Automatic annotation (TrEMBL):
The keyword Ribonucleoprotein does not apply. The modification 4-aspartylphosphate is found at residue 564. It is an enzyme of class 2 (transferase). It comes from Salipiger mangrovisoli. Its EC number is 2.7.13.3. Residues 515-631 form the Response regulatory domain. It catalyses: ATP + protein L-histidine = ADP + protein N-phospho-L-histidine. This is histidine kinase. SMART domains: HATPase_c, HisKA, REC.
Length: 635
């Protein structure tokens, strides 16, 4: 029980008067801590109510004169104190040593409460036991400890990398595992930046507002490789220092994705330009086809006439110029054409060899030395052999002309290889010429763009190559090279199916001659066709419209019918459909000579009809070949 003192002493003057000892007793009793005071003989002098409440196991023993050793022994026996705790509270050795002493604070758990005890010597040789209830503090500490553990687990498991570093020297205070994986374990953040200037810019950006978001920098990976990244950071105070908490995001994939999207946008833009240009070229070429057919045809036929050498020379100049115009128009048509390529399994090695051989053996020849390297066992590609050959011819011709015009270099290397991983065949045309200036490299596939002198180039060669390769689901690009220019074409491979009846050949049948009906609303063109076929032994009848041709067919048979496609009235399409309905045998003898092979409507009709056709401008030999082939097929 607590020691109580009488608060008053009678005085002669009348009422009670408070003494200092009484006031001290009240203060001790009012303390929230438990307090027990022992004299130099280790006997209990005073204790307050708080001490009795905190130690219910020995509360009934508490009385003035209680020996400290007895108190400890009963405390342990009654379960209020663990034996090891009692040992720690045994201060006898400290007392015997003399001087001031203190037993290290000891926490005691009793039920759901936790108290802390401290023993301290007094000046009179005794000691004081102070006991404090720390239950709430222990709960707060446990909560904080659990929160700290949770935060640490989150940081250790978080996929985002987090780094704490000092602002001044960049020393790393904390680094999450994700940050270590990405950036390594350098002691200072300087190692995370590609240059000190970038880190200085980063610090400069952070300091004014204490934050920076998604600042682009070049980072250094753990393996030393550089990568594009975005850094966000916050400036905080930690233990009296300015500290940066930062996170770095690797945006390599996003950068690559943006690059691909930009390339796709450029491809779409190129396709739109080609489509718009195609419409323009289609109109121009269609108007030029008929007059060019007349010029080319008559010029070629004049070569067979018995004329003087001087006239022949002039005729050849006219013929060469007209043929050049015809080639340009046909290039326009090929570039503007919207039909898909006729893709079949093809031997690209054979196609490339044929194209290079044709260039080398042509009348103009090649000025540069051409080497051809073809990897063995190349898989077939699905493509149009004629169009792929045109790509090869254009690329090699461009390289040869660049070398010849600049006087630089003299070698062209053409190679074919197999990219097994990408399942593509790679065609590479490299030269040691002057190369392509960096400022125009992005424009080389633009239609009508050329670096050649006026009159020397049309600017459609590489644009046509780009269109053909794209139609084959491939890519064409200018590769980085030390000298000269290197163009790389990649085409997807396919498994070629063995053609049924391989090795079987059709016996060639002798060409025959017969009556031919020519239907064209352009009189000059029909006269030209009549003259060309007439010289080859055909009997030619001309009709200026489909309706006139139907009237002629009502009274006689023809071995062949050659008709234009676009004409007033029924036109070539209506003419064919009428014959297919009323006289299918005559419809099977029909062929088309037309300048409109680019529109989807015309292309769809020609593909659906399955009949032979010849594209204007008309060359005499092509026309004769068409007529003979049709006769052989119909015989």
């Amino acid at each position: 029980m607590a020691v109580r003192f009488d608060p008053s002493v009678p005085e002669a003057g009348g009422g009670p008067q408070r003494r200092p000892a009484d006031m001290l007793a009240e203060v001790i009793d009012a303390l929230s801590e438990g307090l027990a005071i022992f004299d130099e003989n280790a006997l209990l002098l005073r204790f307050n109510a708080g001490f009795a409440e905190m130690n219910p196991a020995v509360a009934d023993l508490l009385a003035e004169g209680l020996d400290w050793s007895l108190l400890l022994r009963e405390w342990v026996v009654r379960g209020g104190l663990a034996p090891e705790d009692a040992e720690r509270l045994n201060f006898m050795e400290a007392r015997l040593a003399g001087g001031d002493w203190m037993v290290t604070p000891l926490e005691i758990e009793s039920g759901d409460r936790v108290t802390q005890m401290v023993l301290r010597s007094t000046a009179a040789g005794g000691f004081v036991l102070v006991q404090t209830d720390v239950t709430e503090r222990r709960v707060v500490e446990e909560t904080e400890r659990a929160a700290d553990q949770l935060v640490r687990k989150v940081l250790e498991s978080c996929p985002a990398n987090i780094i704490m570093s000092r602002v001044g020297d960049g020393e790393v205070i904390y680094r999450s595992p994700a940050a270590t994986e990405l950036l390594g374990s350098a002691e200072h953040t300087h190692a995370h930046f590609a240059s000190r200037a970038e880190r200085a810019d980063f610090i400069t950006a952070v300091l004014p507002d204490g934050r920076v978001d998604d600042m682009p920098v070049t980072g250094i990976r753990a393996d030393g490789a550089r990568f594009p990244s975005l850094v966000s950071a916050r400036l905080i105070q930690y233990r009296g220092e300015d500290v940066l908490v930062s996170s770095t995001i690797d945006v390599s994939k996003e950068v690559e994705l943006r690059r691909r999207l930009a390339a796709q946008r450029e491809q779409i833009f190129q396709a739109e330009k080609m489509s718009a240009l195609g419409e323009l070229l289609a109109g121009v070429a269609h108007e030029l086809n008929n007059p060019l057919s007349v010029v080319v045809g008559h010029a070629l036929m004049l070569r067979d006439e018995d004329i003087s050498d001087e006239v022949l020379r002039r005729v050849e100049k006219i013929s060469d110029a007209a043929e050049r115009c015809a080639r340009i128009v046909k290039s326009f048509l090929a570039m503007a054409r919207q039909q898909p390529a006729r893709l079949v399994p093809m031997d690209i090695a054979e196609t490339v060899e044929t194209a290079v051989g044709a260039l080398s053996q042509s009348a103009e020849g090649l000025g540069a030395e051409v080497s051809l390297q073809i990897a063995p066992d190349l898989p077939p590609v699905r493509g149009d052999a004629h169009q792929i050959a045109q790509v090869v011819i254009n690329l090699v011709t461009n390289a040869d002309q660049a070398i010849g015009e600049s006087g630089t270099g003299g070698r062209i290397d053409v190679s074919l290889s197999h990219d097994l991983a990408a399942q593509r065949v790679v065609l590479r045309v490299a030269d040691d010429g002057p190369g392509i200036p960096r400022d125009i490299r992005s424009r080389i596939f633009d239609p009508l763009f050329t670096t050649k002198p006026v009159g020397s180039g049309t600017g459609i060669g590489l644009a046509l190559c780009h269109r053909i390769v794209t139609a084959h689901s491939g890519t064409i690009a200018l590769a980085e090279s030390g000298t000269g220019a290197t163009l790389v074409v990649r085409l997807p491979t396919t498994e070629a199916r063995e053609a049924e009846g391989e090795g079987a050949t059709l016996a060639a049948k002798p060409a025959g001659r017969g009556a031919v009906l020519v239907v064209d609303d352009e009189e000059d063109v029909s006269d030209l066709i009549r003259e060309i076929l007439g010289r080859d032994g055909f009997e030619v009848t001309v009709a200026g419209s489909a309706e006139a041709a139907l009237d002629l067919l009502a009274g006689r048979e023809f071995a062949l019918i050659l008709t234009d496609l676009n004409m007033p009235g029924l036109g070539g399409r209506g003419f064919y459909e009428r014959l297919l309905r009323d006289r299918p045998s005559m419809a099977r003898r029909m062929g088309f000579v037309t300048g409109d092979t680019m529109s989807p409507q015309a292309r769809g009709f020609l593909d659906g009809a399955g009949r032979p056709f010849l594209e204007k401008p008309v060359a005499p030999e092509e026309l004769r070949r068409l007529a003979r082939g049709m006769l052989e097929g119909n015989a």
